[in-house]
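Form 7-S
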Amino acid sequence: MTTDLALPSTPEPLPLGALSEPILVDPGPRLLRAVVESYRAVAPSLVDPSVAELASGADAVSGEADRGPSGLPTLNAYAGESAVDAATAGFRSASRLAALLDADLLDLRVLDAPQPNPVLAGEDTGFALIGDERGDAHKQIEAAGEGRRWHRVGADASIRERYAPEFADAAPYRLRTPSRRRVYEGFAARCDESVAAAVLRALDAEVDADSPGTVGPGPEETRVRTYAVGAREGALDRTLRRACEDAGLGSPSTFTRIKRLLREAELIETASEPQPVGRPRERLAARGALAAAETAEETVAAVRGVTE
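Output:
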């Protein structure tokens, strides 16, 4: 596996590993997504593992003492909350960033005030990204293919020293979307591996030709798809809600609400199973279009529009 990680720029990518303790300041959504994509390009099984890789039991690659997995450089990111929200609007993009957080390859903290330009600074040098996505003129430049470019703005530690104390005091960004690995492991442990695989396939499914393929379902749709898969698999309601919690998708009470929505849409039903001791258990079952679905895409299509 190559570890030649670089951030995109013009005319040549900027090698992230060449900087000591780098800090990226005020990246916009496009740059944040580019950072995640750069890690994914060199460590796909870590950032965006396939169902087959997760089912095989392959763990994230091991790391060196002073670096992340397989020697990948770690990055401190000091970003505006709105930029991170935009960059992680769907499960696919957010789960990839979550994988970097889980692996301690990214320390993401909230920047309160926007800066004139994004900055990438190490202990010995720093760069500014000229031609950001924030204004119409910059968008036109990108559309014309001229892109953006990192410009060296210092040959000492002054740039990093300007931001490092603020970064250390800043609040961590609380990403509410889990990584693919956490989702798989949560469902595999509470239900079984077949349910875990079915959940990820449903989250990967694309049924809207007009939707971009890099974002994925939003938080509410992610929860609806997940619970619907569990119902199709005949999971116990309590077990499924706890699996959703373990996977980082929401609390049991959140999924009680999702259950109600699917029930009102006449897509699921429950059957009571008496127990020798204690209250009966509720087992879920699919109805209607959800019961008839044979593929992940058909499952997703069956629950489209299920919202408050």
